[in-house]
Each structure stands twice: as C-alpha cells, then as structure tokens.
Amino acid sequence: MAFHCMFLLAIYLVLPLSTIAQSYKNVSLGSKLITSDVTNFWPSPSGEFAFGFQRSGNGSSGFLLAIWFNKLKEKTIVWSANRNNIAPEGSKVELSIDGRLVLTDPNGQEIWAHDTASAGPAYGAMLDTGNFVLANSSSGILWQSFHEPTDTILPGQVLNQRSRLVSSFSSTNASSGRFELLLDGELALYTMKYPIDATNDAYWSTVTGGSGNQVNFNQLGVIYLHAANGTLLKLISSSNETNSTASQLYQRAILEYDGVFRHYVYPKKSSSGRPMAWSSLRSIPDNICLHLPQQHLQTGGIACGFNSLCSMGTDRRPRCDCPLRYTINDPKDKLGSCSRNFPEQDCKDESRGDESFTMHEMLNTNWYGGDYEHYADVTEDWCKQNCLSDCYCVAAVHNPGKDCWKKRYPLLNGRTDPTETAKTFLKIRKDNSTVGSTITTTPRSQVGENRKSQSSLIISVSVLLGSSVFILMLLALLYVIKFKGKYPKKLSAYQAIPGVNIRSFSYNELEEATNGFEEQLGTGAFSTVYKAVLNDEIRKVVAVKKLHKTVAEGEQGFLAEVNSISRTNHKNLVQLLGFCNEGQHRLLVYEHMEAGSLADLLFKDSRISWSRRVQVAIDTAKGLCYLHEECSTQIIHCDIKPQNVLLDENLTAKIADFGIAKLLRKDQTRTTTKIRGTRGYVAPEWFRNMPITVKVDVYSFGILLLELICCRKSYKQDVANENEMILTEWACDCYRRKEFHLLAGDDEEAIEDIERFEKLLMVAIWCIQENPALRPSMKEVILTLEGSVEVSIPPDPFSFIRFV
C-alpha cells in the first residue's frame, strides 16, 4: 500500500504545475454578467465548468456568484464568492477595465470584490480544472478561486497551511455552517461556535505529529497529506482507479453540512458501469455519531444539537431525532436542537414529589458530557429512581459496568447506535397524550405522517356522524339566516377597542397553526410562546403567546398587552398581529423573530460581534424612546432585559413583552404601583415608595447596556475576584481606574474600538444613577450612542443612596 501511494505521488509530481498552461477562453476586461440572464456565463474551454450566477437554493430569489459542473444536469456548485451575502435580482458581476472583479447589487453597492488592479491584470479565464483565474499579459496568475475555497476541493487543487473548508448551513442554505476542515500541521475537522467564526475542539484529525504541510488532490483522484519535504504522511482518500479510468470521472471532495468530508465521483459517460449520479467513495468520519470532541465534552453536539440524538440512517448519513416529548426548535434545521414540550420539575414544589414524572427507557442510547453526579456499582432501578427523585436531573445513563451518570438540561452529544451498550432513562412529565411506552424518538421526517394519520381519523369519525349532524347544521343555518340583523352582533372585547386594527383568531385556528401547541419557543412566569404557521397564502410563520390559566391577573395582563402593543408601530418593537380571547383562552399572535432573544446570543460562547452589539443597543434605545415619547399613549415597559429584546433574521433588535407595562394617561407623567420587572434590572425607586416614571426603563436599559458591552450577566458568581460579581459596581470601579480593558476581556474588536467602549460605558453609568432625575431621557441616550452629542463625565451613581 505504501509503495502504491508513493507511486501515485511520483506520478503527481510530473504533472504540470501551472494550471494556466492549459487552453482557456479569455474573459476580457470590461466583461460582465447579470442575474437576469443566468444562461449567460463564462465557460471553460471544454465546457465542463462555468463561472456565473446560480440560484442560492430551492425557490430562492437570490443568487450566488459561483463555479459549477456545467455538463451535469445537477449543475453542482463547487465554489461561491458570496455565500454569506446573497445577491438580489438585478445584481451584476464585472471584470472592470482597471482589473477589479466586483459583484454589485442593483443600487451599485458592492457585495463582493477582488482587487488586482495594482498588479496589472490583462484578462480572466475559467479553466478546465474548475479554477477561475485573473492573469497578467504573461499568463502569470494574480488571483485564483483555488486559493479561496468554500466547502469543496477539486483534482489539481491543494490546501496549504491555514487553508480551510467551511460547510454550508444545510442542503438548501449555502451560507457558512457549523463545521470546518482546517490544515494547521494536522488536517482536522472541527465544530464551529456558530454563528461566530471560531472553532471548538476537533472531532477527527490525521494525527501525524503536526508535521503536515500540504493537502493534495491529484488528477488520479488521490487525496493525501504530505510534509514540507514531500514525505507522504497520510492517505486521505483514493478512487482506486487506473489513470485511464480516473479521467472518465468527475471528482470532488466536499465538507458537507452534516460535518462529514466526502469524496465523490460521477461518470462522464454512462458506459463506465457506474450510475449517472454522484456516488461517495469515502466518508470521513465513517460514523460521525460515534465521534466526540477530542478534549472537552461541554461544547454541545457534533452532528446534532442539544437534546437531540444522532443515529446513522440507511443512506449512511447522520440523522437527528428528538427524544419522546421533545420537539425540534427549527424544522428547517434538521441537525439542530430540540426542546422539551412540558414544564420542568419544580424544585420548590415538594408537595407532589416525583408523582408528576416518569422515566422513559431508551436502549443503546447515551449522552456524553453534562454529568453532574456519578455513582459506581449501582443497579439500573436505583439509578432510575435516584434521578426521578432529583429535581435537577433530566436523564440518567446506566451501563453494564453498573455506572450511573446523572444529567442536567440541556443534554449533550446524544447518540443511539447498536454498538452503544448504555441505557438512558429520560425523565418526562406524565401526560395522557403520551401513547406507547416503547417509543424512543420521534423522527422529524415522520411528523407530517403523524398529522396525516390524525386527519384521517377525524375524517372517518366525521363520516360516521355526518348523516345526523348535517341535518342539525342545516336547521341552525336556516335559523341564523332568518334572524340575522334582528339582534346586535356580540363582539369579543378587543374588537370593540377604538383604534385597534389587528386580527381576532379563534382558539381552534391557533391550535391548528401550532400543531397542538407542539413547538415551544420559550416560557416565562405568565406565559408560554409557541411557533405557529398561519393557514394563509404565504404560510406566515408567527409566534403565539399563550397566557397561563393559573395566573390570577391573567385577564388584566392580557388587557394591558393588547392595549399596549396594538397601538404601537415602530421597527424596533415586536409587532402584534392578532389575539384570541375565547372563554378561558387568552393568546397573542406576534411576528416571529428568527434569531431569538438577545440573551441567547449574548451569554453563550457564540457571542455576537462588538459592532453588532453596539447596533443592538441603538435599536433598543430607539424602541424605548418611541414608547416613552412618541406613542399616542406613553408606555413604561417595566421589564427591559436581554430576554425581552428579540432579534430578527438580520439581527435587528426589537423590544418584546409589554404584558406588565403600566400605561400613563396623556396628562400623567408618573404613577405609583407595585414592584414590576426582573430582579437585577429593577430601578431602586421601586423599593423606596417613590413615584415611578419612564426613568425606571432608563435604569434597566443602563444595566442592559453594561451587559452588552461587557458580554456578561449583571450578576455572576463564578468569578476569580469577588469584586467582579456585581457588574454595576465592577464597571464603575474600572471606569474610575480607567481599566476599560478588564471589562472588554478578550474581545479584540472592542479593545480596538476602546474610545467608543469608554463612551458607551459612560452612557451606561449615567443611566444607572440612583437619583432618577440625573438619568438621561432615551432621546438623549440615542444622540450620545450615535455620536451626535458628546457625553459628559458621570457622577458616582451610588452617591444618592446616602441622601435618601
């Protein structure tokens, strides 16, 4: 085998090293392509590859500037320039007279560009290797797509040190995904800290002592890693074809969205004996479900998200399934996380013990990482009962060696495999809707089939009852027609509210839209939010907030929220689309916010960038300013915190949840009410029997702003220095000592913008002044955040305590 590899390497070394030496078709300076004519592209001489525009996904209206296999029906894309910035209809790419290859939108705004003007380019060329190049008049390559790969490499292409491939997000979404193949001494596969561009620990590597220098994919279909002196270190993949046969195959190697690096071949002619389709020669790793991070197990799943179980399908691809009573967070993200669709066990409620929960047995199933307790030499039954009686335990894993591991929520690195000897006991709430004790998981592909079965049952019952019910319905209809107009129509409470122009839904409509309140987006003290799809022409995705029946003031909370939100209209406020007020059912229908809450993106490893955090602060300030100063009726939100700032698909921040808002009349500037809001964000005047004004929101915003710029919670116990536990006190101390770098931590972007960091810190300190009169208005906050006015030096925010 070693001799065979060295023989192939020797053959590779005599192959032409200059790809520009082959025949090509010039793309002259000044040439351009437009999205309105995708049949026009820049082909290679043989026509096997093309450079131009392709649709970015199924049914997408956007375009990728791409290279693809042009003779295949599938038009398989091997490279793209703008995977994370899709070009809209009307965009164009031009190789300009001055030598810039630039992609612009219909307004002339630059989407992507490569500038070789200073090097004196003479032309561009799409080569038969699949490489697009810019060259000078001597055919010297100035730039080539092979040096900036996306997720694919082709024969003739090499990966040098620090070169990487990044998977797509899904099979239909070409944007950067969760996995990376990187050459850095070792060739290794990593999970990404999505959505930021950083990696977790490797889950596969070549293990060659860090001496790897270059990865080659030669014309014979061999992919291998070699050292700087040319020594072969690792054979990655081989087509096992002779030289003549290899030339009859199209080949590519791709890091796919599921985290597997696959080597594919496709016959150029049907006579080769292979099916006329892409077939996989090698998958690395062979079974990704059995691979874990090589150092740490606390970083979440490899192939699947939190609370999701990985198993290999019959097509040798990983599949991710939610356990019993858990549902997928995003149906479009087949490898994503799951959430339980029942309330967690309440540690404060000891009256019912463990009677509300039961343990569901799952064979050949294990979860790796997230253990908080381990017991040796115990029985299965002991392990199960111990977890059942522990309110912190969500699952227990027991193996044949009689070890018991107790798990917290969320569950990490789950897998189900015949080789797995462990057994999982999953804690679920008892419910009459749980059918069958032998069900282990609900495959995501079967969700639609279950709905069809339910529909068939309903239809069958309807047919049996139809003959008698139809007569009664006909009589009722005749009665309505006869007496229509004689009596005033009874309106639901909010159809009668002046100025409210939102849709009223029936409970059945919302129950159907949420598929029986199946997919939970979040839960709070007063409500639970579910994802729903409206039964309209565009199948609009919305969020449905269901108020808990047990809340004593539920009616009042519902009235306040409908009154508040229905009268607002601002781009930085979550839009209320409708409501339901039917019997005991009170629900609100909002626009769906794709990216979730600020808390989800701020307090995790995958934090959002400094520049985006600054924009979130400005967006939130604008939303609050509208509530305080621009609404027809002034609104105090009363609960500003990261959980109530939601972000859409463009990461635009919008304020949500007006359920505890206190409305002020036009002639009223302050009010007295019971304490509202969340501990840690509540202004001090709530506790001092002082009048409550809009300045309580300014105080909460100040806390939020500190959390935004420092990327940490307002109270944190696990700190090296106890002086850092309370963020407001630590931030003020750092400001007095001018030690801003301590607050910025390892955020290089924030450190580089330290002057702006100091400015935002000063704004936050003004907002958290103990004396409400010293706090700025939200209008003043916006002006300082945007740089329109300078911010003055703030006083000690806690000095007011000594004088009240």
- State the CATH superfamily name of the largest domain: Bulb-type lectin domain
Regions with little confidence, pLDDT below 50 for 5+ residues: 1-23, 432-440, 445-472, 478-500, 662-673, 800-804
The helical percent reads 10-25%
The major β-sheet equals:
6 strands, mixed
Q: Strand order within the widest sheet?
A: 37-41-42-40-39-38
Using DSSP, what is the number of strands?
47
The overall pLDDT, averaged over residues, is: 81
So what's the overall shape?
Answer: globular
Q: Which architecture of the largest domain would the CATH scheme give at its second level?
A: Orthogonal Prism
How many helices? The count is 14
What is the third-level CATH name, the topology of the largest domain?
Answer: Agglutinin, subunit A
Counting structural domains, the number is: 4
Strand content: 25-35%
CATH class of the largest domain: Mainly Beta
The first-to-last residue Cα distance is 85 Å
